[in-house]
Specification:
Number of helices of chain B: 6
Distance between the termini of chain A: 7 Å
Shape of chain B: globular
Shape of chain A: globular
Structural class of chain A: alpha+beta
Mean pLDDT of chain A: 90
Helix content of chain A: 40-55%
Helix content of chain B: 25-40%
Low-confidence stretches of chain A: 548-560
Largest sheet of chain B: 5 strands, mixed
Strand order of the largest sheet of chain B: 3-1-4-6-5
Number of domains of chain B: 1
Number of strands of chain B: 7
Structural class of chain B: alpha/beta
Low-confidence stretches of chain B: 87-93
CATH topology of chain B: Rossmann fold
Radius of gyration of chain A: 23 Å
CATH superfamily of chain B: HybD-like
Oligomer: heterodimer
Strand order of the largest sheet of chain A: 3-2-1-16
Number of strands of chain A: 16
CATH class of chain B: Alpha Beta
Number of helices of chain A: 16
Strand content of chain B: 15-25%
Chain lengths: ~575, ~160
């Protein structure tokens, strides 16, 4: 007899996502992803000055503040066809990249690694054997026997107090946990080291963004960082040199620890390369503009249908008509007033219409976006595939490296097709992070060189025309394609829609009743113990879900509840 | 000495943002010495790790659902603070409690934590506080100042007498 599992909420971070699965014969046969709270943030923006939107939108989410600021200024600049000075592009690119690196490191080590790594098993790990194992994988200076001994003692002390603290909700001892005690000890050690390393990425964002944790330097038309090489209060050579030092530390960790760990964990969980593919239509956008108009980018993006890399349709500029025309949203299965069919974001409406959870009807506060009428998966896997498809050399190098390392550890050849999977999303995130840390150094050099030429411009003053203008600002955020759509009248906002990455991935069924990427990825996932559905969490967490922006935060309960009912 | 006054909450959800509004008012109305660091944490989490590490004391201001009368102010200190996190009274504690648990793991936890909470009246979409919560703002900020005094910090009003 089948069972129905309800996990609510599914993430430890903000937001409120509920997943329902029907399990038959030990596998998921049907799935629903539901955002459990309403987002009305867009309505706050109506009537506001377009220049203020970015500061308001960065409050939508506690995890991705900067990304909404970036997408918002780009949307308004797009509506005005306003160019952005090179220095401002580079400074934004540095913030974007440092933020993404921070997000990826924290997601892998602190928010999802414990789906795969058993902390309690790490206590049984032998530090000498762990050092031997680690030495064969990388030259990282933090992989010494002394370091592993120290971590083991620290962990024993922490666990010994009975207060597991941050490790409280893990599925320790679950039959789906497969790492040896030594690999667990290695991973837990890197968990702690990652806590130190992520600070460098945060510091880059806060120095360039003028304030932490919410950046203050964004402006429609550029950034507000004055550049003067002889003043203490602004962006100086000293500060730029400090940033370069932090970039180097991040680079060392990402290349010698993160990429290696993903490959090693992937090798132990090679069966997870066959689980969790879901929607294989992938959407990403180009990012890190290299010119003032947004027609040249450091990182390419595009649309890949059915996993066919050769058939990629590149998205080429901030004015790309193919992207602009392709996005629509359905509310047929969402708790909003509908009846008008799919709507383009410029015409989007956000009028609540709550029913209850109806399996075949409305069941989510998340809208269902489509690209040319089809659901699309977004995120690191989408962008890594798009970059690989367009022969982006660093992407191909890191991707091949991860697959080869995992293959040699698992004693088998792992093909590129293996990335269409749960574990593949983690691998792609690490590859993306390595590409981004290279870009961090690249954008830093571009900024320093451009300032060296005597260019200190950071801002072009926006001029708002009378009457209506529309713009879209897109950004390849850590979790994937983020787009803000704005309609302005005399410089005031008359419509605003944010189509966020988690909306794409956590989409409920759409106008044609096709299931969304989370739902699709869960089908056929094996579930060993319905009371402890670790496997379901693994697949959903591999997307790095963050619903704070997809829905509205209003929860007073933090505890994840698993309910299992017989069907 | 380093004392952090941390306002948390989502300013897009009316009273949810009371902590952020309180630190804005605190900075406007008082001259704070260098040892007091004011942070508008919004609803962020791990981004604050660096800023919150090795503090002598953290005063958290937040919307707290304690079951008390609307707009009432509560103060939690010492052994009551873990209860604040365990019972998950406020919507963004998951992020903040993770940061504090992480600091503990790193051995960089604050010397002490005080929570000053306000029972929200409205959590609707909107950037203004409810009139009831707006009305208790002076009292709320004064309570933070009292807390700073208790910690041995001299704080002066910056509002000119003539004003």
């Amino acid at each position: 007899m089948g069972k129905r599992i309800t996990i609510d909420p599914i993430t430890r971070i903000e937001g409120h996502l509920r997943i329902d699965c029907e399990v038959n014969n030990g596998k998921v046969s049907k799935a629903w992803a539901s955002g459990q709270m309403w987002r009305g943030v867009e309505q706050i923006l109506l009537g506001h000055d377009a220049r203020d939107a970015w500061a308001i939108t960065q409050r939508i989410c506690g995890v991705c503040t900067t990304v909404h600021a970036v997408a918002s200024v780009r949307a308004v600049e797009n509506a005005l066809q306003l160019e952005v000075p090179l220095n401002a592009q580079y400074i934004r690119n540095l913030i974007i990249t440092a933020h993404a690196i921070h997000d990826h490191i924290v997601h892998f080590y602190h928010l999802s690694a414990l789906d795969w790594v058993d902390v309690t098993s790490a206590l049984k790990g032998d530090p000498a054997k762990t050092a031997q194992l680690a030495g064969g994988l990388s030259s990282w200076s933090g992989n010494s026997r002394q370091e592993f001994t120290k971590v083991k003692e620290r962990l024993s002390g922490f666990v010994g107090t009975g207060q597991l603290g941050i490790f409280t909700n893990g599925y320790w001892g679950h039959p789906a946990m497969k790492l040896t005690p030594e690999v667990n000890l290695l991973a837990v050690t890197h968990y702690l080291q990652a806590l130190e390393i992520q600070r460098y990425a945060s510091k880059i964002v806060s120095i360039l963004g003028s304030k932490s944790p919410h950046i203050q330097n964004m402006a429609v038309g550029g950034v507000s960082n004055p550049i003067a090489l002889d003043s203490q209060s602004v962006l100086t050579i000293e500060r730029l040199l400090a940033i370069k030092e932090w970039i180097d530390k991040l680079d060392d960790f990402i290349k010698n620890v993160y990429l290696v760990d993903v490959a090693a964990i992937g090798a132990f969980y090679a069966d997870w390369t066959n689980i969790g593919a879901g929607v294989m239509d992938y959407l990403s956008v180009p990012d890190l503009p290299l010119d003032t108009k947004g027609t040249k980018f450091a990182l390419p993006g595009g649309y890949i249908k059915g996993g066919d890399l050769a058939g990629i349709k590149p998205i080429k500029s901030f004015n790309d008509q193919y992207f602009r025309d392709g996005v629509e949203e359905s509310v047929k299965h969402s708790w909003y007033k509908g009846g008008k069919g799919v709507l383009h974001p410029f015409k989007g409406e956000t009028e609540p219409d709550y029913t209850d959870f109806q399996d075949e009807g409305k069941y989510s506060w998340v809208k269902s976006p489509t690209f040319y009428s089809k659901p699309a998966q977004v995120g690191p896997l989408s962008r890594v595939l798009a970059m690989a498809a367009q022969n982006h050399a660093p992407t191909l190098k890191y991707l091949t490296g991860v697959l080869d390392t995992a293959g040699s550890l698992a004693h088998t050849k792992i093909p590129l097709a293996a990335v269409h999977s749960t574990i593949g999303r983690h691998a792609a995130r690490a590859v993306s992070c390595a590409v981004q840390v290279d870009e961090l150094a690249h954008q830093w050099q571009l900024l320093v060189d451009n300032i060296g030429k005597g260019d200190t411009a950071t801002f072009n003053k926006p001029v708002f025309p009378k009457g209506e203008v529309r713009g879209v600002g897109f950004h390849e955020a850590p979790r994937g394609v983020l787009s803000h759509w704005v309609v302005l009248n005399d410089g005031k906002i008359t419509n605003y829609q944010a189509v966020v990455p988690t909306t794409w991935n956590a989409a409920p069924r759409n106008e044609g009743d096709a299931i969304g990427p989370y739902e699709s990825s869960l089908l056929n996932t094996p579930v060993a113990d319905p009371e402890r559905p670790l496997e379901v969490l693994r697949t959903v967490h591999s997307f790095d879900p963050c619903l704070a922006c997809a829905v509205h935060v209003l929860d007073n309960e933090g505890k994840s509840v698993v309910q299992v009912k017989a069907l | 000495m380093r004392i952090i006054v941390l306002g948390v909450g989502n300013i897009l959800l009316t009273d949810e943002g009371v902590g952020v509004r309180a630190v804005e008012k605190l900075q406007l109305d008082f001259d704070l010495p260098a040892e007091v660091v004011v942070i508008d944490g919004g609803t962020t989490g791990m981004e604050m790790l660096e800023d919150l590490s090795n503090a002598d004391h953290i005063i958290i201001i937040d919307a707290v659902r304690s079951g008390n009368a609307p707009a009432s102010i509560i103060r939690l200190a010492d052994e009551q603070v873990p209860v604040f996190f365990k019972t998950k009274l406020s919507p963004h504690q998951i992020g903040l409690s993770d940061v504090l648990a992480t600091l503990e793991l790193l051995g960089e936890q604050p010397g002490g934590v005080t929570v000053i909470g306000v029972e929200p009246v409205s959590l609707d979409t909107g950037m203004k506080l409810s009139p009831q919560v707006e009305a208790v703002m002076p009292e709320l900020v004064q309570l933070v100042v009292t807390e700073l005094h208790r910690l041995g910090v001299e704080v002066k009003s910056s509002v000119a007498e003539a004003a």
